[in-house]
Write a structure and sequence with these properties.
The complex is a heterodimer. Chain A is mainly alpha-helical. Chain A has nine helices and three strands. In chain A, strand 1 and strand 2 form a beta hairpin. Chain A is elongated and about 125 Å long. The chains are: A mainly alpha, B mainly alpha.
Chain lengths: 243, 134
């Protein structure tokens, strides 16, 4: 309480003049911001005990601030014209998987990035080397990319590991991709060497013709095996032996 | 702004397609594919250069860090937008409820104070009107 009492400061009056002569509304008492302060004056009449006189009517009456344009009670969605976005995201079902957002990306992108060390967080935390020129590789550098022919082990074939939704087409895409790998290599190489094309095709044709024949033979053998070991044939054989 | 993103998107798609083709070649490698593979590697370097050139155009784009967490978990980033909208709406409703209740409380308090201190409340109303909007 005592801390809140502020003595009036007679800035332009002489020390000999008393505040009683001037009055509380004289220029000697500059009007400052009254918000949050106690409107009182202290009378220092000689011969009498100092007393506190309440000049204001209410204690701690503050000036009301101007009304803000946006408050917490404003409908922010309509204010920022986000109603269309709200309907799009909240009324329609948004799919959980990342592959729904990026359907054309190859590989399995729905797995967490931490598993195969491909997370964006690690890229931010450990920034890779930047601001260096990326030049084309020389012949000697490219010699490091000479590969042995043959298929990769299945554990390293990440390009064929699509998301679960695409599993139905996986088998078809696998076969087509294997064939397309050869086609890709040949199409581009024939653009450079047109004479090599008919030989490669000749080599391919017998293989492709043999494949369906082999599969038919295998199916026939499997059917024969099933017939031999089926319960009907076993029953008839047993009946024949008994008789 | 959208054009810059489209150009970047196209460039990234080319890069991804090139990488995918390289993956197919490598998964079942044939000797005649070596030259093609070398070409693909050179194409990859040139495409990375093109993408690097576009960096200056999108320097001012700000992305919230939480989106990266969603992507790292294999979740759709649209879910982040959806979650933000839901949180904003919930907070908006919460604060509106507080504001409405405080307004009601003020009205009720004025009514009760007027009953108990009628003279003082008259002085208070006059003071408020003199100062500005109540």
């Amino acid at each position: 309480m005592a801390d809140l009492i502020r003595r009036p400061e007679p800035m332009q009056s002489s020390p000999r003049s008393s505040p009683r002569d001037r009055g509380s509304r004289s220029p000697a008492y500059p009007r400052q911001d009254s918000s949050g302060t106690l409107k009182t004056t202290i009378s220092l009449v000689p011969g009498k005990t100092p007393s506190v006189i309440h000049t204001g009517s209410f204690y701690l009456v503050k000036d009301i601030p101007d009304e803000a344009e946006i408050t917490g009670s404003t409908n922010l969605l309509s204010y920022y014209n986000l109603e269309h976005s709200y309907n799009r995201f909240l009324n329609k079902k948004v799919k959980e998987e990342l592959s729904a957002f990026l359907p054309h990306l190859p590989g399995n992108i729905d797995s967490p990035g931490i598993q195969d060390n491909s997370s964006l967080r690690s890229l931010i935390e450990k920034i890779p080397i930047m601001n260096k020129d990326m030049n084309q590789l020389s012949g000697s550098a490219l010699s490091g990319f000479r590969l042995h022919p043959g298929a990769l082990p299945e554990q390293y074939q990440t390009m064929n590991q699509m998301t679960q939704k695409k599993k139905k087409h996986k088998r078809k895409s696998k076969e087509s991709e294997k064939g397309s790998a050869l086609q890709l290599a040949q199409d581009i190489s024939t653009a450079d060497n047109p004479s090599a094309e008919p030989e490669a095709r000749k080599n391919k044709r017998p293989k492709r013709e043999d494949e369906p024949k082999d599969s038919k033979k295998k199916k026939k053998k499997e059917k024969k095996k099933k017939k031999k070991h089926s319960p009907d044939t076993a029953g008839t054989n047993g009946a024949e032996a008994a008789s | 702004m959208a054009e810059k993103f489209e150009a970047l998107e196209q460039q990234l798609e080319l890069f991804i397609e090139n990488t995918r083709q390289m993956g197919i070649i490598v998964s079942d490698f044939q000797p005649q594919g070596q030259n093609v593979l070398n070409q693909k590697i050179q194409t990859m370097v040139s495409e990375m250069n093109e993408i690097d050139k576009m960096r200056s155009q999108i320097d001012n784009v700000l992305v919230p860090m939480e989106v990266f967490d969603y992507i790292d978990q294999g979740r759709n980033p649209n879910l982040y937008t959806k979650d933000c909208l839901e949180k904003a709406l919930a907070k908006n409703e919460h604060v509106k409820g507080k504001t409405d209740n405080l307004k009601r409380f003020k009205a009720m308090l004025l009514v009760e104070l007027s009953k108990v201190f009628p003279n003082e409340m008259e002085m208070y109303r006059a003071l408020k009107q003199g100062r500005g909007p109540t």
